[in-house]
Amino acid sequence: xxxxxxxxxxxxxxxxxxxxxxxxxxxxxxxxxxxxxxxxxxxxxxxxxxxxxxxxxxxxxxxxxxxxxxxxxxxxxxxxxxxxxxxxxxxxxxxxxxxxxxxxxxxxxxxxxxxxxxxxxxxxxxxxxxxxxxxxxxxxxxxxxxxxxxxxxxxxxxxxxxxxxxxxxxxxxxxxxxxxxxxxxxxxxxxxxxxxxxxxxxxxxxxxxxxxxxxxxxxxxxxxxxxxxxxxxxxxxxxxxxxxxxxxxxxxxxxxxxxxxxxxxxxxxxxxxxxxxxxxxx
Length: 282
Hints:
Elements: H1 4-9, H2 22-26, H3 55-68, H4 77-85, E1 88-93, H5 99-115, E2 124-129, H6 137-154, E3 174-176, E4 179-187, E5 201-207, H7 219-235, H8 254-258
Parallel strand pairs: 1-2
Antiparallel strand pairs: 2-5, 3-4, 4-5
């Protein structure tokens, strides 16, 4: 059994130990802080995990206000529904744009995937990244693709046989630990496209089973897209981006939807993930 102070640290990633008092830190078993513990919604209100005035508190409060608003409705109905049903899981990543930060993120993602089958169907992992604030869209975009590349390099599982390995194939999807998942990045630099806005930087991972039954040729999928597009029109100050489209559509690519430009910003001509990091042989 862990002592109470050790249990508290198990709700933090290793770099989060500084939020504890010196006496508690002195009594810690360092091995209790090897991997982050996946957080539930109730943890976002825990002072020891998300201290008042910290970047964690600001990031969490902004997300909850966005998803839980009854008057300024967030376009992604699945995210809103998952929050209210307790299906979302969360992780904070200190010093995210480093190899150490990538290891923290990878550990959180592995833990999420291990519990995902027991969560409500439309569940997602929302990760808050502590990166250099105040960047332009292009800067955040570079951090995002660097982060996904690091995750791929840390992945010790083979690429799924049923997922195309080439990002230019419409049936490609980002994979980690053998699981394909849709990835969404939101940043503080997104001001016109508010649906992709965050306190600093946030990456959401949605395993593909989240979308089972919502394929583009199903009535449920068509209804969902109609609702989301309708909400986007009133939520963002810019039109829905042309890169948006259903999985497998020959005219769309999944990777282009992960990080959308804000307004006049440009996107990469080719997927920044290349070689083994994109899904080729390791």
